[in-house]
Specification:
Oligomer: single chain
Order of helices and strands: HEHEEEEEHHHHHEEHHEEHEEH
Structural class: alpha/beta
Largest sheet: 6 strands, parallel
Low-confidence stretches: 321-327
Number of strands: 12
Distance between the termini: 35 Å
Mean pLDDT: 92
Strand order of the largest sheet: 3-2-1-4-5-6
Radius of gyration: 19 Å
Strand content: 15-25%
Number of helices: 11
Shape: globular
């Protein structure tokens, strides 16, 4: 039996009294962002709301097959009147990269430990394994039926945000939730096929470039791509997703990093750990955040200097753990 997380009264009241609602999430959306936005949109529609779904960036190819994914609009600015704007998985309004959100009634729903209380109403639950779990709780609290379409979106979000059920925090409750979504119509094999076996060829070419740059220092492993590699392989932003996992998959590696040089020479960093190092805490020092075992941030370039700075943090964190400390 799945026991849903408690939905705060002010969140529930704010959603119930809103007539026209916008649902959005962070820029460069991942599986949890896309799946949760879609499921939340379905929930609000069934509640009789006039709902729109919008993101700053396009839905990645891996998630465009999801039910109603074509209904998510790509905007740079929010215009029009809304009684409420739901922001999923955002630590700030700026994280959406959408302008026009000033002076609107904002509802913040997030599960990251680094989440900030920036909105008019905030629901932050670090105990939830994904924002999808919080949306699932909204379904149960409001009594709205979880359709096969909604279950498919929620299961996809759950699968991807737990690292295929590999990250710390995955427990019996996580599998109870996954099992309930399967009973409601989610097809695990079909979802896995779309998520893991539908890569663009540009992503594989980019992966080859990244793997050719693989380096290791004891328990720490890293790899990188320059902006020139992105152009040469024809890769898009979404093709970078998951590349860091090849480094963390190596035996004996406890921390991994993937560095991607941006066109403006800043460097986007994806961090992973499978030991005691809290990479979210490291990312927060550089203005980022995320999960204990999966996080990210953006550094000022050039690439070589950004890599050196971050590796100093990562190796320092590893040394503190080996000496019996905590990070």
């Amino acid at each position: 039996m799945v026991i849903p997380h408690s939905v705060p009264d002010d969140v529930l009241r704010s959603i119930q009294r809103a007539g026209r609602v916008l649902v959005t999430a962070h820029a460069r959306p991942d599986g949890d962002a896309v799946g949760s936005v879609l499921a939340c949109g379905m929930l609000l529609h069934e509640m009789g709301k006039d709902v729109q779904m919008a993101l700053h960036d396009r839905v990645p190819v891996l998630y465009r097959w999801l039910p109603c994914a074509s209904h998510i609009q790509q905007w740079s600015r929010v215009d029009g009147d809304y009684d409420a704007v739901l922001l999923l998985e955002c630590d700030s309004v700026e994280r959406t990269r959408l302008s026009g959100l000033e002076n609107r009634f904002l509802i913040n729903i997030d599960h990251h430990a680094s989440a900030l209380l920036f909105a008019d109403v905030n629901w932050v639950d670090p105990g939830a394994c994904a924002v999808a779990e919080m949306v699932y709780s909204l379904f149960n609290t409001t009594g709205v039926h979880i359709t096969t379409a909604a279950a498919t979106c929620l299961y996809t979000a759950l699968l991807t945000d737990t690292g295929s059920f590999c990250y710390q925090g995955t427990d019996a409750h996580t599998f109870d939730l996954a099992g309930d979504l399967v009973r409601r119509g989610a097809d695990p094999a079909l979802i896995a096929q779309h998520v893991y076996f539908s890569n663009r060829d540009s992503k594989i070419r980019l992966l080859g470039a990244a793997l050719s740059n693989l380096r290791r220092d004891g328990n720490v492993c890293w790899l990188w791509v320059a902006d020139e590699d992105m152009k040469r392989t024809g890769a898009a932003e979404e093709d970078c997703e998951g590349i860091v996992n090849y480094a963390i998959s190596i035996s004996g590696i406890d921390i991994a990093a993937f560095f991607r040089e941006l066109p403006d020479r800043r460097v986007r960093v994806s961090l992973r750990s499978k030991g005691q190092v809290n990479v979210a805490a490291i990312a927060e020092r550089w203005g980022g955040g995320g999960h204990r075992n999966a996080s990210g941030c953006t550094l000022e370039g050039p690439l070589s200097e950004a890599t050196e700075r971050m590796l100093g943090e990562l190796t320092g964190g590893m040394h503190r753990v080996l000496e019996g400390g905590r990070v």
